[in-house]
Amino acid sequence: MNDEDVIRRAVAAWNEGGVDAFLEWVTDDIEWHHPTGFPEGDLWCGRDELRSQLHDQFDAVFDAGTVEVESITRVPRGWLVPIRHSVHARTSQMDLAWQAWFLMTVSGERISANQVFLNRGQAEQAAGIGA
Predict the structure, then answer these.
(1) Considering Cα of 109, then 112, then 118, then 119, what sign does the dihedral take?
(2) pLDDT tens profile 78-116
(3) Does CATH number 3.10.450.50 belong to domain 3-119?
(4) Which segments of 34-94 are extended strands (E)?
(5) Domain boundaries, the chain
(6) What's the pLDDT tens digit per position in 11-49?
């Protein structure tokens, strides 16, 4: 299985089984970076912390959510993966969607690091392809 397959299968697992299914596709020592100033911290280390944080964020607020991969591109610093995340909010009953850019590192057949960006230019610069 190649790196792109790993990323696609991890996202499919999220869509089919949620957080715990997705976590089967990450390493035990994953590093998950958020944009600076993220309320829950800029860095989550390890599968257990990532599990806890993702459950806290998504289970408390949203009924369901899906991630759509727009593309997967090999870049100098990993894999650039623009995504569209769609969710249904429990309290407001609103359907919400946002775009983000993941800069992923795959080791073996697992995701070992991810940086989350809310700005395409910042993602491309971190990926080694932006100005």
Answers:
(1) negative
(2) 999 999 999 999 889 999 999 999 999 999 999 999 999
(3) yes
(4) 43-45, 62-69, 73-75, 78-89
(5) 3-119
(6) 999 999 999 999 999 999 999 998 888 777 789 999 999
